[in-house]
Amino acid sequence: MRKVILFILMVVTNTIAAYSQNNHNIVQVIEGEVRAGFTTPLGDYHTGKSQISMSLGLEGRYNIKGTPWDCGLMFDLSTARRGYEHLYNDGYDRWQNNRTLALALTGDYNLRQGTKINPFIGTAIGVAFNDVVGDKYFPSKGTSMFFSPRIGVEILYHFRISAQCNLCRKGYNNLSVSLSLIIGGRPKK
Predict the structure, then answer these.
(1) Helix, strand, or coil here: 112?
(2) Phi, psi at 175, each rounded to 5°
(3) How far apart are CA 146 and CA 172, in angstroms?
(4) Of the candidates 188, 123, 124, 186, the residue with the CA atom closest to the CA atom of residue 155
(5) How far apart, in whole angstroms, are the C-alpha atoms of residue 120 and residue 162?
(6) Residues 6+ apart with CB under 8 A from 144
(7) Each residue of 108-148: pLDDT tens digit?
(8) What DSSP letter does each residue of 9-72 carry, written as one string?
(9) Least packed by Cβ within 10 Å: which of 3, 32, 48, 69?
(10) What's the pLDDT band for 105 if we cut at 50, 70, 90?
(11) Which 3 state secondary structure label does DSSP give 5?
């Protein structure tokens, strides 16, 4: 497994190096994003069965002039939903939603910035506010560090499809796949 992960990291690093040799299109400096998507929990938590849930997010970014980099601020609401019907066997839909509200600084590297198809990789780091909503079989609440590597593609300057791994605290970690609407960030005319 380590060899596979190292191979993937090497491919990503070499891809970034190859694309970094290109001239970069000048794009609008400020862009905003509104996103919605689906999440699934990562890892095990009190024998709960993973279930699909929702995520919402807002992000503002600053495109650094003459470079493929951008940085910004992200608000992200995601959940790690797990079912616990198997603990009770009474026919009721029993589940717990571990909710994370994250406030984070972001940084992305745009592989083809200013083009109609723009793949990107990035990360977010910040603070996560964790709590339980819905049925509370294993109540917990608190604040934790938030780290979120992400990858995706921006399409036609206004849409983004991305996947991000939200890591903050056992039971709250999740994988999010989302569709975003982008305002700004197009190539300058």
Answers:
(1) coil
(2) -105, 125
(3) 11
(4) 186
(5) 9
(6) 127, 128, 130, 168, 169, 172
(7) 999 988 889 999 999 999 999 999 887 777 778 889 999 99
(8) HHHHHHHHHHHTTS----B-SEEEEEEEEEEEE-S-STTPEEE-EEEEEEEEEEEPTTSSEEEE
(9) 3
(10) very high
(11) helix
- DSSP string computed for 143-176: EEEEEEEEEEEEETTTEEEEEEEEBSSTTT-EEE
Question: How far is residue 79's CA from residue 133's CA, in Å, rounded to a whole number?
Answer: 9
Please name every residue paired with 122 in a beta bridge, in sequence order, or none if there are none: 108, 150
AA letter at 52: I
C-alpha pair distances (Å), 130 with each of 11, 43, 80, 142: 35, 16, 11, 5
The one-character DSSP state at 188 is P
Q: How far apart are CA 181 and CA 104, in angstroms?
A: 19
C-alpha angle 126-130-131 in degrees, rounded to nearest 5: 165
Q: Determine the topology of domain 2-184 in CATH.
A: Porin (2.40.160)
